[in-house]
Amino acid sequence: MTLAEKILATKLNRKYVEPGELVEVSVDLTLANDITGPLAIKIFESTNIGKVFDPEKIVLVMDHFTPNKDIKSAEQVRTCREFAKKYKIRHYYEGGNCGIEHALLPELGLVGPGDIVIGADSHTCTYGALGAFATGVGSTDLAGAWITGKTWFKVPETIKFIYYGKLNPWVTGKDLILWTIGDIGVDGALYKAMEFTGEVIKKLSMAERFTMANMAIEAGGKVGLIEPDKKTIVYIKNRFKRKPIILKADKKAKYADIKEYDVSKIDLVVALPHLPSNVKLVKDLSNKIFIDQVVIGSCTNGRIEDLAIAAKILKNRKVNPNLRCIIIPATPNIYYQALKKGYIRVFIEAGAIISPPTCGPCLGGHMGILAKGEKAVATTNRNFVGRMGHPESEVYLAGPAVAAASAVLGYIGTPEELGLKREN
Amino acid sequence: MKKIKGKAWKFGDNIDTDVIIPARYLNTTDPEELAKHCMEDIDPEFFKKINKGDIIVAGKNFGCGSSREHAPIAIKACGIACVIAESFARIFYRNAFNTGLLILECPEAVKNIETGDELEIYPEEGKIINLTKNKTYFIKPLPSFMKKILEDGGLIPHIMKKFEIVHQK
Questions:
Q1: What's the count of helices (H) and strands (E) in chain A, helices before strands?
Q2: Does any CB of chain B come closer than 8 Å to the CB of residue A220?
Q3: Which of B28, B41, B163 is facing A391, going by the closest CB pair?
Q4: Which residues does chain B have within 8 Å of residue A143's beta carbon, measured at their own beta carbons?
Q5: pLDDT tens digits, residue range A44-63?
Q6: Is the overall model pTM greater than 0.80, yes or no?
Q7: d(CA A387, CA B18)
Q8: B21 DSSP assignment
Q9: Which of A35, A225, A390, B24 has the most crowded Cβ, counting Cβ within 10 A?
Q10: In DSSP terms, which residues pair with B129 in a beta bridge?
């Protein structure tokens, strides 16, 4: 069995599950945010059932339009706050304890290997980096799970992605996943599980693994899984309180497809508007693309490792006066680490804007909206039409190295253009 | 389910949920409010142009991107009776099901339908007729488990029905 099949079979106490089979499984954790939560609450309350399946397994993170951007958003958050109080939901995050959900939940140890997690947010697949079968659902599916503690899945087929070779300087998991999406397309893994493996994945930091699993949805994937290893165990130590279920794919597992990538051929990339699959090597861009904004943050790339790369590039340099550079530590803890390590000082001295943890500009919510015709380089996950603001604005997706270098250059470029070298 | 008759509005591949309902309008869950902005970033006049019972026809991967259930809600609330596409993104597929928006996967039909074509749909039989082009298509039947959810009137009524059975025991 593949890793996805194994997790489902284990949870079902069965020896075997087969792709295509419809199964009903218990969920270990459910998640909603300030956009999808109010709708799930409306649906849940309409049933008058009066009881949630388990308040300990419900997490509500107010991260999208917070700190509340307008009256309606404040009212949506209030709906969630009152719901949390009413049903004694302890894992409610709104104020100074709040971060971007998919950075926050792993950091707090609320998810771990072998878990089945559904979240009313498409990037719930991020937890696949820990070996959890985690996927995005809508508010009704979530409300259903709040009633029954269960959800149904079609057992997905799996595509295996093997990465080997030596990583090029500055290249991170973000470049690998964008490259992969560029190769298979935005529906290349539709309804399927993605399993990321190979010597390169083993070497990646947990932060980079989260980045890769996070964007499985951008290829249409149901889950993006990485086998737990020593790094995973170290990461969950002192965080994850339940007993982790460490599973591995069988050597003889059947895959719908196997893709192999020699990473020495992958350099720094950028996904041009308006699809994450519209991927080009930065060095192959024929014209200089001048930009108006840089965003470094999000559930994809707002972790301390990402900020470390940005700090390395921005140290003793200035943000180009023709643009705004917005840096968003994904959680309060990441913010605090960045402060202790001196990154915040580097960012301020460079002339960057430091935002509180929020999804904000990634989905065109607030804290960095683009005007008509404006262009942004962002370490976020989507560059659809109007994603960060005006329908005629443009988003270019990249990793933290390209984003930070572009913030100094004023156009989309690499750290090498600033004379920076890096040993990977 | 009743027969549907309406005009086709054709879109391309990868129509994402940000285009179906931009995030700037997600500070409400009110269907009427969401409906006004349906498809706004791809066709600002969409809400004004369509009539009740019209049909969206699209290419591959319709509804990709965010998990926002506001997307099928907006489509349904603005009067669209059905979405026919070559394929649907998985979260959107579930959400449409759960919110009672009829969606049909039929690549053959999509290829031959143009904006303005008159379509007739018989959901029970899985039959799509393009009256303008005089062509008929059939879709694959749903798995019985999903049919059951539809018959019960959506996921929540389905769950509640099961719940009551358990309670009676």
A1: 14, 18
A2: yes
A3: B41
A4: 156
A5: 999 999 999 999 999 999 99
A6: yes
A7: 6
A8: S
A9: A225
A10: B120, B136
